[in-house]
Structure formats: structure tokens, C-alpha cells
Structure prediction request, 230 residues.
Amino acid sequence: MNKSLLAFFVLLILALPATAQKFAERPNPPRLVNDLTGKLLTGEQVSALEAKLVAYDDSTSNQIAIVIVDDLKGYSAADFAIGVGRDWGVGNKNFDNGIVVLISTGGGAGKRDAFIAPGYGLEGVITDLTADAIIDNELVPGLKTGNYYGGLNSTVDALIAAAAGKYKAPADYRKKKGNGVNPMVIIILAVVLISLFSRGGGGGGMVSRRGYTGWGGGFGGFGGGGFGGG
Prediction:
């Protein structure tokens, strides 16, 4: 099963009628850095990242939104990130040039995960492999050591470089990540599709399915905790 077919299944799922449940409440006033857990970033760190992202938005019209939650509400990180991008209207609607950087801390009933979801207008430069490489090389190292700000700051820098065509995944990265889709994914998608049909499903999407769907067990405890095993 190739990625085009997988993307078709995802878009089909997201095209189902929306329920009343929101992925996450849209901030008012709008912000680009949203630590909805209130735990990972200090006020100063939020301000520093916000200033960088606002300046980037002003100079390019590309929007990068950071969203940190402790509960994915039963969704995958990919679907949650896509849903937030759609519901919040991240990026210019004429160019679909938004990027959602999602982190789930696994608090409550949630699970630890991360995803980078760029809009269709940026998918040519921020490909699956590029998003994978950015999470593996920039974001995850910070999460492993508890340097959440550092990981996010490096991730933002890499995304800005990628959008300008200056960040490429290593030539052998596809080989490292492997090819194809596990047949189990097809089964899971079928189950999710049936479940969403039975409960009403979720709306369409302005953000494409891109990036990295898991960390093989998630990052460990806060304050410098280790990277959990699978």
C-alpha cells in the first residue's frame, strides 16, 4: 500500500461529518505557541518562540503553530494535528501554507506522541522524509533530555530552512526509516473508519498528512527523563 492510497484513506476519514467535539479550543486572541498543558514551556520561552514565529509569518506569510496537549482524545497524533490545522485555520487559506507542530505529553488518558503536519502548499518542500528527519534529529533529542524549548526552537529553525528549500533529509534516510506500510495499518484504518461512521466522524482538512506518527514508546518522564522503550 503506497502513501497516496494511505493518504486517500485518511482524507476519507477526515471528510466524514464533524462531531461537536473539538480537537482543541482555538486560542482567543490567536497565538502561534500554545502549551495547553502549561507544563513544558515557561512564559519567557513561549514569548521567545512566539516572537520568532510572528516574525516569520510577517516576512513570508507562512504560519507555524506549536500545539502541546496532554490528551489526543482518542485520535492519532496525525489526525489530531490535521484537525487542529483545519479547525484553527493555520496558514493562508489561498496557499495552505500552515504547519502544525504537535506534541502530546501523555498526561491523563492521552499518549506520548508527536507529529508535523504541513499544508498542501508546503508539502513539496516539507515531505514525509523531511518531516521525519526534523522530528528525529531536532525535536526528539530535546524531548529526551527535557530541553523542550531547545527541541522546539531547533524544530522551528529546521522547518523554516525546509520551507526555503535549505533542509533536506539525509540521502539514506528512506532506507533507515524503511519503506511501505505495515498491513496492520490498513486494518486499523478500516476499524477507525467504521467507528467514525458510527459516531459521526470528523470534518475535512486544510493540512495534509505528513511527518512522523510515533516515537516507538514515547519520551520518558519530565525534567530530563529518558526515552521510553517500545
In short: Confidence is low (pLDDT under 50) at residues 199-230.
